[in-house]
Amino acid sequence: MGTGPIRTALKVDFNKPAQEQPYLHNRWHPDIPTVGKITPGEVVKVECLDWTGGQIQNNDCADDVKDCDLTQPHYLSGPFEIEGADPGDVLVVEIQDVQPFEDRPWGFTAVFDKKNGGGFLDAHYPQPAKAIWDFEGIFCSSRHIPHVRFPGLIHPGIMGCAPSTEVLVEWNRRESELVSMNTLDRVVAELPQPKNAHAGSAPEDLKAKICREGARTIPGRPEHGGNCDIKNLSRGSKTYLPVHVPGAKFSVGDLHFSQGDGEISFCGAIEMAGIITFKFELMKGGIQELEMKSPIFIPGPVEPHFSPGRMLTFEGFSVDEAGKQHYMDVTVAYRQTCLRVIEYLKRFGYSGEQIYLLLSCAPVQGHVAGIVDIPNACTTMGIPMDIFDFDISPGAPVLKLDMGSCAYTSGKK
Amino acid sequence: MGTGPIRTALKVDFNKPAQEQPYLHNRWHPDIPTVGKITPGEVVKVECLDWTGGQIQNNDCADDVKDCDLTQPHYLSGPFEIEGADPGDVLVVEIQDVQPFEDRPWGFTAVFDKKNGGGFLDAHYPQPAKAIWDFEGIFCSSRHIPHVRFPGLIHPGIMGCAPSTEVLVEWNRRESELVSMNTLDRVVAELPQPKNAHAGSAPEDLKAKICREGARTIPGRPEHGGNCDIKNLSRGSKTYLPVHVPGAKFSVGDLHFSQGDGEISFCGAIEMAGIITFKFELMKGGIQELEMKSPIFIPGPVEPHFSPGRMLTFEGFSVDEAGKQHYMDVTVAYRQTCLRVIEYLKRFGYSGEQIYLLLSCAPVQGHVAGIVDIPNACTTMGIPMDIFDFDISPGAPVLKLDMGSCAYTSGKK
Amino acid sequence: MGTGPIRTALKVDFNKPAQEQPYLHNRWHPDIPTVGKITPGEVVKVECLDWTGGQIQNNDCADDVKDCDLTQPHYLSGPFEIEGADPGDVLVVEIQDVQPFEDRPWGFTAVFDKKNGGGFLDAHYPQPAKAIWDFEGIFCSSRHIPHVRFPGLIHPGIMGCAPSTEVLVEWNRRESELVSMNTLDRVVAELPQPKNAHAGSAPEDLKAKICREGARTIPGRPEHGGNCDIKNLSRGSKTYLPVHVPGAKFSVGDLHFSQGDGEISFCGAIEMAGIITFKFELMKGGIQELEMKSPIFIPGPVEPHFSPGRMLTFEGFSVDEAGKQHYMDVTVAYRQTCLRVIEYLKRFGYSGEQIYLLLSCAPVQGHVAGIVDIPNACTTMGIPMDIFDFDISPGAPVLKLDMGSCAYTSGKK
Amino acid sequence: MGTGPIRTALKVDFNKPAQEQPYLHNRWHPDIPTVGKITPGEVVKVECLDWTGGQIQNNDCADDVKDCDLTQPHYLSGPFEIEGADPGDVLVVEIQDVQPFEDRPWGFTAVFDKKNGGGFLDAHYPQPAKAIWDFEGIFCSSRHIPHVRFPGLIHPGIMGCAPSTEVLVEWNRRESELVSMNTLDRVVAELPQPKNAHAGSAPEDLKAKICREGARTIPGRPEHGGNCDIKNLSRGSKTYLPVHVPGAKFSVGDLHFSQGDGEISFCGAIEMAGIITFKFELMKGGIQELEMKSPIFIPGPVEPHFSPGRMLTFEGFSVDEAGKQHYMDVTVAYRQTCLRVIEYLKRFGYSGEQIYLLLSCAPVQGHVAGIVDIPNACTTMGIPMDIFDFDISPGAPVLKLDMGSCAYTSGKK
Q: What Gene Ontology molecular-function terms does this entry list (chains A, B, C, D) (predicted)?
């Protein structure tokens, strides 16, 4: 009989550095000690810091974004031992709720400096920018991006079970290979990095090993999910995660109040600290039974609900800004799609950075439209017109509204 | 007062080869003669052949797919002069309805031979396959893929205004460059091809020029749209197309009864002949006013409506089948996502080709999920569980149903 | 293999009076001869006149409404023998499509004279009025009610199997009783009426009997459905109808391009002639198996799709216009709700009749909200704001638009 | 800058009788003292008891329902002074969130004794019954009604501004008249009742007046809303309430985790204590500007989302259980509709009381379908099939599942 309060399986502390909280960690490794046990069927709450561990402030200056130390993230809560979980099982994770902390009803979206993380459009927007979002129940709005307001599709950016040693070795192999073959003038992957690695409550020796070997939490990875940044893993969703180690060692973090498809500005969701409510089930031997190589999920039934007839939709193709034709490159096409939206919305007085931030965090729909018509991939981005308090439709007059400014670094603007 | 019947601006003839019908064409060129005039505000119907011009038959053998001549497509209806349209305008195309012909209530989906067109998964499914779909009002079902049935999101794969000479030159420049730089062991773009070029009613001299210069209709292109294969351009949608030549010279074709995001098997929609009802408006000087570089659109308000809680969703990442890590490659990630769905659904007894065909044409949702978490792009594909007449959810027992077979070439199976 | 055209099981003739078309009828009676046989599983088309049999014209005068002869309707197509149907079975009716005739792309909505049929608000709007709607594919608009446009949720107002003799006797018993007990100053039910009764192809003797006994088609009735006027019986819906006589004797008519919940102005839907596509199945012994006393249905998956956040919703309670408190009377409450919408929308310049017509036919949502809070029932009516081309939300400025006029009788306005 | 916690404008106390909490009240009267001031634009939280003030327990016996004292409800939180509100204004109430208390994640649905409140079907289900619902984030389930689970459309049953003296006098006039004319063998309205009246912090003299004159909170009323029990006043909704007294004197209570259209079992929602988050705005002179006689609202954009193709829908008509024909009586029709659903679902092993409880609280859709086809009104009730964990569709086999039992009184079962 569920008459009592729900157990909080992990509490975070806002008065202590994330590095000193032993129930957090920021690397993936099979040996990070568990922080507690959860029984399948039990409903539990887990608290999470924002992914930076509190590096970003609720103010009007993006210096904190510029200086954000990217060896630290993501601070994850866990890992939890799931009772009875064995390698080969599938862990079914039902997200029953996600909420910001009552006394921290705000979050942030940021464009990172091209030289410190960057983002999907950093060739165009290389400098840091930031927007603070205030939460009003299910809605959010920002003093940095006026005239928009939308309901959050609240979710965790990261969920996953710990890799086995074999899986970890494979990650490090293939990502090292990518790095070693890199010819681009940018960082293409983050390899294990002892600096600021947080191995939870691991004793010194073990910690050293974890710091040396532990995979970064930055990418999602097919074998376990991780930082997928899928906006639909919200309230009511069920995610099926492969189990690689005894006890599953499940971790969660990087809570988002809202995110657009692609999370294009990198720190692009509305990042927040908060509380997530879970119920777990186990599907014994589920990996083989489901022929599962990567996680699958079913979204919840209560997503924000916009009419298709109210989605202003932009097209983009795999011809880049320089007019160069790429072969079936969806990444190029999606970047072009984003740029088309920015050009369109700038007409209303927003700056490019404001729109870049907005497309990152608002519930925009990014679709792969056509992927077989050589040489052009075609993608679309749908913008729900209902999130604006003025008419953005193509026929509407372009009003002169005060669009204010997002936060920049102290040197700029 | 709209009391009379709607004017049919173009009729096709099923008893004549497409090449002999002067109101069709299969290349993009500014000089193809117009086939009629349409006034903004008028409601008109336009008939279209299927894109192959009738090369594919309603039977149980895929030899016609194997032998399909890819120098012919796509047979487009038009171009139409839109009264008053000038370069720089935007042509607003409202699709009021799309219907198959009453006496041809069927369509086809095909996997093309890897050596003749191929498709997104041709490394895995190199041989031709075909499914015939029967239309029952808004629904379709196939004897070649039992136990599925879904409402069509009926739409044209191709709409566009003629390129100007400048635009055409640019297309040919950049696509030639791609071809000349190609190191892949596959065709990366189709350059102008006189063989089987159809220049409508152009007299001989002009026809020769058009055949020599005219761009192929295979890819969508940012400047005008064309073969975008966007499944949401259905009944009630409004598309905003840039005008590049006097009179706009609008053409349409490649009607689809339904398509999934990506149209992955190349001839992946449910291809059909049919009738499309339009109303056009002009936005004078709209290109500059909207800062438009590529088409935009607003879908119609009557799309098939599935609960998010009924979308079984698969994840894929930019690590390929060989375990190679790619850098932020959405194309690779989407291919992996497709493969994950196929592995899952094969458990129920479908062949890989059947599922490949199904994902191409059913209303599956392909999203760009995360595109900033180096080095892995993450994409998702959502499958509406309601289109199956048995339970495909992860917990459901795997029944042994008779899944029959799709059509293969006479040599196979 | 469904490669051929769909069979049209019944064609109507626009050049002949409805009374002379032997495959039509306008009374419910078990002995009306069948007009053809349909096999379960077969897909068939059935043509229908509008319910008045063509009495209403596409013009700007409501004299035809005033003079409309209400002993004639509804002209139904059928009855059809469903092969193998026996009393006790359930006939499963899948509506695969509904379309207006190609050359009659229009329909009408009318307010009937209080003395000739009346309507739900005839105390307030006692005089005839009319609006003609033009169909543009899935959309409709009216020169008589400017600035609105919406997609149709197209459906038949009437479907049903013939009553058995026992059922018919019961209908006549209880409706006669109502009439005999009537103390209201209005017609409360229409009993069998030989005048203008149409018994299909019945020979004289039988015809006389049918005309004498046959139930009017005006009300829906629990035992078989009939004139339910349920707006959601649209494309893709499945209705489960009890079978009372051998062969089921299924009839259909009263096609609507669109209707609001309640169809409040009586001839309140957008009435049209058209073609409906069916597939039937039989559930042998289904009445007992499903414990069925009245029809049930599952709507189709492609209804027009408005965001709940775009539904302006009005409340009404069971206190009437005179301030009299009624006890839990949903009918009174719903009438009040309608009046509230009219008062609100009149602010924009519409006449009361225009709004009355609009609420009858647009896809408004009428809900029973609270029915237990003595003494007040509470109902709501939700208006999709997206159907207007100006902003009707409570905060919006009230623009002065030209709202024209609906059609009135020649004596009026 | 909303960086701090949201102010809680009113806290309730679970350790004290509701009658002793001076910031609660259970009658409507203009003179009940305000409990605090709220500024338009401010976001505030307000705590609420369940409507019975804690009379119903989380156990398996319905004796508490049988004995529930109906002179007490509803305990409302307030009234609040809204700064600047004057008679004639409209108070715009945005509900930003509604949540159960963290440590009370449960609610109840009850059938009241026919002699103590009764309900919409008390002729059929005259005895008390109860179901306890456990909340799991957005979902709820009940040990008393197995095999169903659904997301809550959480909302307050009651919101309203205080009546003016004139309005109050009118309420008492018309309801007294109803009572005095009553010929039914049941209570038709609850007139002012000093017993257990709670006038907030009113001093003795004033309290006596309020107890004597104060209107009961049981019905919703057109002039101010009140106990409308509209399930869609959930998160994100905006309600426009007429202001009748200086400062508006806004009160709220009767929180529901979920409710079906009609709330048919009287205490039919999932009743709970909880916390509601508001933001208010004022529309000065709004009553006249909007021609407002009753509240209006716009639902929030995040309602649970079921496909129309998954709504099993039942029809009912105004012919009662005894076969008596009623004239256009929607109340009778809706009762029949409810009975049809019960008959259908009993086939699966549920008791009538279980289904009665379920239809009261699950998100079922009750529509007025046809209201002009004399003599039969037609209503529908749509049941979302997705809330069951087994297949309830008409074709599905009827499995033998253990349906347990709801709670009855100690004397019964």
A: hydrolase activity, acting on carbon-nitrogen (but not peptide) bonds, in linear amides
Task: Give residue for tokens 């997200």.
Answer: A95
Residue B308 vs residues A236, A343, D141, D386: alpha-carbon distances, Å: 10, 31, 20, 12
How do the domains of chain D map onto residue ranges? 7-298, 308-408
Q: Which residues from B are below 8 Å from A373, CB to CB?
A: 218-220, 227, 229
Cross-chain Cβ contact C1/B306 below 8 Å: no
- DSSP letters spanning A275-299: EEEEEEEEETTHHHHTT-SS-EEE-
Which residues of C lie closer than 8 Å to A, measured between beta carbons?
305-310, 386
Q: What is the DSSP letter of A212?
A: H
Distance between CA C228 and CA C152 in Å, rounded? Answer: 18
H/E element, B356: helix B352-361
Rounded Cα distance, B263 and B242, in Å: 25
DSSP structural state of residue B113: P
Contact (Cβ atoms closer than 8 angstroms) between residue D158 and residue D251: yes
Can you tell me which residue has the tokens 């909505």?
A: C109
Q: Which helix (H) or strand (E) holds B191?
A: none
C-beta separation of A232 from A302 below 8 A: no
> Rounded to an integer, what distance in angstroms lies between the CA atom of residue D251 and that of residue D162?
8
This prediction's pTM: 0.96
Where is C148: in which H helix or E strand? none
In chain D, the residue whose alpha carbon lies closest to the alpha carbon of A2 is D134
Nearest chain D Cα to C236, which residue? D309
Residue written as token pair 């994950």: B340
Find the closest chain B residue to A222 by CA distance. B317
Measured distance CA(C83)–CA(C195) in Å, rounded: 33
**Which stretch of DSSP H or E encloses residue A205?**
helix A204-213
Best of A111, A328, A347, A374 to disrupt the B interface (most B CBs within 10 Å) is: A374
d(CA A130, CA A110): 4
Residues in C touching D372 (Cβ below 8 Å):
119-120, 229, 262-266, 268
Task: Please answer whether residues C294 and D336 qualify as being in contact, where contact means their C-beta atoms are separated by less than 8 angstroms.
Answer: yes
Q: Which two tokens stand for residue D97?
A: 């969130």
Q: Please, what is the Cα angle at B99 between B95 and B100, to 5 degrees?
A: 145
Could you give the C-alpha distances from C291 to B244, C286, C296, D341, in angstroms and in order? 65, 8, 11, 10
H-type helices in A36-102, by residue range?
A: 63-66
The CATH number assigned to the domain with range A308-408 reads 3.10.28.20
The DSSP secondary-structure symbol of D152 reads: -
Q: How far apart are CA A395 and CA C235, in angstroms?
A: 32
Rounded to whole angstroms, the Cα distance separating B241 from B221 reads 12
Virtual torsion, Cα D360, D366, D372, D373, nearest 10 deg = -80
Residues of chain D contacting residue B309, judged by C-beta atoms under 8 Å apart: 305, 386
- Can C7-298 and C308-408 be said to share one CATH topology? no
CATH no. of B7-298: 2.60.120.580
Q: Which residues of B touch D (CB under 8 A)?
A: 305-310, 386
Residue A325 DSSP label: B
Q: What is the pLDDT along chain B (413 residues), one digit of tens a residue?
A: 445 688 999 999 999 999 999 999 999 999 999 999 999 999 999 999 999 999 999 999 999 999 999 999 999 999 999 999 999 999 999 999 999 999 999 999 999 999 999 999 999 999 999 999 999 999 999 999 999 999 999 999 999 999 999 999 999 999 999 999 999 999 999 999 999 999 999 999 999 999 999 999 999 999 999 999 999 999 999 999 999 999 999 999 999 999 999 999 999 999 999 999 999 999 999 999 999 999 999 999 999 999 999 999 999 999 999 999 999 999 999 999 999 999 999 999 999 999 999 999 999 999 999 999 999 999 999 999 999 999 999 989 998 899 999 999 997 65
The residues pairing with B238 across neighbouring beta strands, listed in sequence order, are B94, B298
